[in-house]
Amino acid sequence: VVIVDEINSSPMMERLLNDLLMGYTPEKKRPLKPGFLVIGTQNPVTMAGRRAPSTALARRLITTVLPAYTTK
Question: Which is more confident, 65 or 27?
Answer without folding.
Answer: 65
